[in-house]
Amino acid sequence: MLPGSNFPDAIAPDTGNPGFGVYLHWPFCAAKCPYCDFNSHVRHAGVDQQAYVAAFAREIATMREISGPRVITSMFFGGGTPSLMAPETVAAILDAVRAAWVVPDGIEITLEANPSSVEAGRFRGYRDAGVNRVSMGVQALNDADLKRLGRLHDRAEALKAIGLAREIFPRMSFDLIYARPDQTLQAWEAELKEAISLAADHLSLYQLTIEEGTPFYGLHKAGKLIVPDGELSAELYELTRQVCEDHGLPAYEVSNHARPGAESRHNLTYWRYGDYAGIGPGAHGRLLTAEGKIATATERSPEKWLELVSANGHGMIETSELSASEQADELLLMGLRLREGIDLKRWSALSGRILDVERTGFLISHGMIEQMDPDRIRCTPEGMLVLDAVVADLAF
């Protein structure tokens, strides 16, 4: 067992029952990073956290009416920047979740945080509130790239926050972005090895993507921001997988690496295609109801979300029933991100068919997927590089 928790030392195998998670979206940031297209908002005048606590509680109660009684297996505060919340705000929202569903002691409760000194100063308060895992947006371990990425912390603050998180929380992860402008294989390998030496048991390592609507998109389109080309990006990805594997943090998902037993329980619920309630401005969810599985989405604007919750008890602007075929496609898309792959019996039960033998054989022969046993397939590392194309081919 990991210290201070009831987490097992090894992740339970995929049994087709991925659990029930609760995702809580705090949409506010101190500043908007130039690469970010997430639903995040800067409010220089401040945020009335008590008003949002009340609204979260109302939407949680509504989601409970939709989902019925469930036992929660994980919770996740995402954003935005949840570490801008007062610890009392986190505690109050967790209390609202406990009032709605069954929350066993010691389940994984993650909070995303930035490593600035101000936010790291709240870590002990979050731990007291019930958070037992923190995921920090470090993004780079040198000041030049941190500045270029628009981060508000420097390397010294990042190192201090990592040390503090390891001291306070039973589990800790942090993110890095690679395939950054001017980044070489040698520089990334050195930075990655340093990150591994700092990480307790988990790293999330994402390739920089240029998203439309972001400042980086405009700079890239104008030729003022040059990122590694496709070949170098592939080499950086392969290097990332190999270095992490060699140092005991194998990839269990396309971008996530962990020591055995330290995988994110909450994210595994997504990737194993479980149910989760999405609460807060811009949150998405998947819920099994008496009528079938539904997809939910809430209003992205925080202020409009507040108004909707006040009027209706929730901020949902979209609820749609997912057909069996749509669920099967989502299971493929999510499950093939995982090293463990997907259970073909579960996919067939949802889709009402079996995978096309000819297409499967073609992908196997070209090294894109592999048959682990008669009832399970997974993407190879090479297939992960073109995952969307593999999924599209199999789902046809």
Largest sheet: 9 strands, mixed
What's the overall average pLDDT, rounded? 92
Percent of residues in helices: 40-55%
Radius of gyration from CA coordinates: 21 Å
Instruction: Give the overall silhouette.
Output: globular
What percent of residues are in strands? 15-25%
Low-confidence stretches: 1-8
Q: Find the structural class using helix and strand composition.
A: alpha/beta
How are the strands of the biggest sheet laid out side by side? 9-10-8-7-6-5-4-1-11
Q: Determine the number of helices (DSSP H or I, runs of at least 4 residues).
A: 16
Features:
alpha/beta; 16 helices; disordered N terminus; 41% helix
Quick rundown:
About 40% of the residues lie in helices and about 20% in strands. The protein has helices at about 50-65, 85-100, 115-120, 125-130, 145-150, 155-170, 185-200, 215-220, 230-245, 265-270, 300-310, 325-335, 345-350, 355-365, 380-385, 385-395; strands at about 20-25, 30, 40, 75-80, 110-115, 135-140, 170-180, 200-205, 250-255, 255-260, 275-280, 285-290, 290-300, 315-320, 340-345, 370-375, 375-380. A 9-stranded mixed β-sheet has the order 9-10-8-7-6-5-4-1-11, with helices on both faces.
